[in-house]
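Q: Hi! First time doing this. I have a protein sequence and I read that you can turn it into a structure. Is that right? Here it is:
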Amino acid sequence: PSAAPTHLRDSYIPEFSSREKGYSEQSQFQDCLALFFNGTKNMTFSHPRFAALALAAFLAASSPSATVAFAPRSASFVGPASTAPMATSSSTSSTSLGAIGVLARKAKEAEVRKYCENGPEESTLEQVQAMKSALEAGVPPPSGPGLLQRALTKRKGTISIVAEYKRKLDNKGFVDEIFSPEIMSPAFREFFSSAVAVMADERTGGCTYDDVRSIADEQESARGDMPGPCPVICSDLIVDEVQIARSKAFGADAVAIDVGVAGADRFGTFVDAARALGLEVVAEVNSADEAQAAVDGGATVLSVLGGGNPAEKYECVSSLAVPEGAEVCAINKILAKDNKALEEVEEAWVSRDLGFNAVWVSDALYKNAAEPTESPGAVIAAMRAKSSVKWASPKAQSGRGEGAREYLGDIMM
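A: Yes, that's right. Below is the predicted 3D structure, encoded as structure tokens:
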């Protein structure tokens, strides 16, 4: 098409061995997107990786299904007859999504559409109506930190734990040894997790909203006991308000919303929708810009994603412009390492010393589940231990030097 970038105009996608220096995958993604918007139906590639990026661009441009066939040295992409661009809720986003992020968002939007077409649960519809009524009446600003933020924000020098329940690990698929929510939920509480998250995106975490309900019910059963119930976070890829209503209907106290997926403008709308139902929001961010956009959108609990070291991640939240009187709770989301050295425990200690209020732990809780001394509860206890990075290792039975500074009142709160 004549509207295509010059270096693509002659043969759609050239042999990439001759592409100009600095032509990044992001640039290719944007160029493929421009081609699809202008009606291109067929593309040929010299390597499957380039076809995968084009597939991501195609899915960003249209919703119909597509197929990709790979050959040893070439790949052919065949699009549908119509490739008209489809408007998305985050078209005005000031953040950027990579190809994988676009694919994930498109897949979730299709899933939510199917869910709505099949008819949401009656309890969810009731929450949708309650949300609309509250938004019409006007949602007052929060008077202070909510239940979740208070649970995660303790005395300086301590660390709180968000334990995430999931049935499917990132690199290992479904794991049979992960016990049911009814078994894991009290274990999280008894080892003093400050909150419990449920990965409700079945594609990535293997859980459903029924698991959210199971854990919420089990936590509620501990009301009046010591320790008492933990706040429950529904962790789904939020692309529509109906997911927020469903989270409330299934017993969640908070929802996790990815700022990059939602877009800065849409994120503020989601925050208002959550507050209309009395839910707190955990803003998931990948950069300082997304963190500031989250605060500007009304979030006060921020979870820093990504695989960088804790110091780099803390920079995302260390210099935020926060409204007067507001306090921000910073969480480091710890990714599991592909070894058995329990490096995640040391990362929790480093996060504590940097100034993070909490760490969000997921796959690391389960990677050594067969080891009695390295069960999810043992990992949580180690992360909360009064240990020092300078004097102790994660597997040490004892150590010297100062680590966490806790008092009995902090521990029992």
